[in-house]
Amino acid sequence: MRRYSPLFKKPTRVIAIDFGSSQIRTLLGEQTKDGSYSIIGYGTSQSDGAISKGVIQDMEAARHKLREALEMAHQKTTQISPKLIAIGVNTPSAETCTKEGVLKLKNEEITEEHLYEVLEIAQKEINESGRELLTSISSYEFYIDNLGVQQPLGMKANQLKIRVHITLVPRAIIENLRSCIESELYSSYSMIYHFIYNPIATALGSLTPEDMELGTLIIDMGKTTTNLTLLGEHKLIYASTFDFGNIIMSRDLSNVFKVTFEEADKLVYDYGISEELIKKETMINLSPNNSSFSYSSPTKNEVKDKPIFLQSTLEGFNRNISRIDLEGVIYARAQEMILTLKEEIEKKNFKNLFLRGIVLSGGGAKIKNMDMLIGRIFNSPIRIARPQGFPNIPQPINDPVFATVAGILRHGFVQYNSIQRGYAFQNKKVINQLWNSLSSPFKTIFSKTKRD
């Protein structure tokens, strides 16, 4: 829980929304006049195909599902207009990059104008055609005369440097998410919209200060996508979205055993990944593209083979299958996904940068022994994510699938407080910025002071 000096005469509310392929999740947070904040409401709604890989597939259905989640979040509280809507963005089509800007000074005191200039330098060569620029709280590194600082305003220096992690997202995704939200919240609300890339939000919602300092890898396994995020020394090192998720295990089961997707998905979560297979297999160092990648079943006397009756098998196909065969399919696909992630980490030379180990979030964290398999393949300690940063977290949301939306909410509070302090930049073509008391929403009409 963070505290700020008294700024408000009455409680301020922020809404966080995570548009997942499995569920739309919302959190309602409140900040009191003494600066403390907490979660006062939460809501979920099954996406049912309205969202896939971060993209709205059916606008009317998405609006209906969002309405359900918002109504649930407000069930036990009065309707007070939110001041800011924080929205997570998650798509494999996101592009990330790190840019640097350097501004020469003459032992001058750093002002907002200097920050404008150095940010413009950092982003001047980025092609924004058809894309939105997103940054967030963990995306900035400031240096004065090559000395790292958190907040350079008011300091004297001969040189101001910034390194910023930028996410480029197709503009159509942002515009349609905003349209969906605006249709379900009163247009008379004086709301600020701010978007954050989900891999960063998951880190904000699941890591402790020690995790961020010593280095932690976050694996967020969703229904249709998987995110990787690496933080260390309180800096964002890497963030990316992969075009695969838990659904590929269900699809494999559906294909092999001729059952519906619904039953296949249930089988994945009912049986999970075999501990015996994890202990037996020795292919940890194999690449998923290696020609020798294969699955070999243990013998029947190594794993108790219990027959499983399938409810939805197509006519003419076997309704009774062995547990060994079922677990073999789930294991092989899960291993392939995790080896792909490991290969990416090794390719980037990141394998020695997460001293605090791995944090697993999302629906994948609820699959039996998924954490064990990841820990074995990465040869790293691993734990299941839980939302961090709020007091008295309601038990139903003390769950790995809520880590991302908790981070979106934390981001929203810091964003709003930054704007209240008058540090929101205006009428400048710079990236959306946020670092401690620096911020810029997509709409600039909310800044306290108007600039030319």
Keywords, separated by commas or semicolons:
452 residues, alpha+beta, Nucleotidyltransferase, domain 5, Dna Ligase, domain 1, 5-stranded mixed beta sheet, 11 helices, disordered C terminus
What is the gist of this entry?
This protein is of the alpha+beta class. It is built from 11 helices and 21 strands. 30% of the residues lie in helices and 27% in strands.
Question: What's the number of domains?
Answer: 3
Helix content: 25-40%
Number of helices: 11
Shape: globular
Fourth-tier CATH superfamily name of the largest domain = ATPase, nucleotide binding domain
Can you list the strand order of the major beta sheet? 3-2-1-6-12
Question: What does this protein structure show overall?
Answer:
With 452 residues, this protein is α+β, with helices and mostly antiparallel strands. It has three domains: 12-93 and 171-207 and 388-439, 2-Layer Sandwich (Nucleotidyltransferase, domain 5); 96-167, Dna Ligase, domain 1, CATH 3.30.1490; 226-384, Nucleotidyltransferase, domain 5, CATH 3.30.420. 30% of the residues lie in helices and 27% in strands. The strands form six sheets. It has a five-stranded mixed β-sheet, with helices on both faces. Strands 7, 8, 9, 10 and 11 form a five-stranded antiparallel β-sheet that branches. It has a five-stranded mixed β-sheet with strand order 15-14-13-18-19, with helices on both faces. α9 crosses α10.
